[in-house]
Amino acid sequence: VMTLSFLMYPVLRSLALQVHSAVTGSYISGTHSVAFINCLNEQIAKDIARAIMDKKLAACVNILPKTSTLYFWKGEIEESTEILLLVKTRTSKISELSSYVRSIHPFEIPEIISLPIDQGNPFYFKWLEESMARD
């Protein structure tokens, strides 16, 4: 009984939070995430952003202008310019987003990282949900 209770806790907690959110209209921290994806140039960034949107893996993708980047590659310090994508999506889609981007990205090891969203505008989160296909 103790083992079963321990194993069921995450599921029961998640369900309780979803019910609380539905009843009160409050946001469940971490439901959505922002993913960061680096791109070599603006055209690649636009192509990847469009592909992400076409697959409904995000509700919105911002394309940030050129940034200077320093990084280690094969033991050497490299310097380049990159374009950064900010991808607003449901946290549950991060794995699928990452796999898809790796399959179409020209970099050998593209940067695809995400951070969960803790708080924000509830109307924006509602729009995010309405803009994306359900899991």
UniProtKB/TrEMBL annotation:
Gene Ontology terms describing biological process: response to metal ion
Name the record gives this protein: CUTA protein
An example Gene Ontology molecular-function term: copper ion binding
Highest taxon listed in the record's lineage: Eukaryota
Family (UniProt): Belongs to the CutA family.
Signal peptide (residue range): 1-16
Species, as recorded: Eudromia elegans
Alphabetical keyword list: Signal
Subunit (UniProt): Homotrimer.
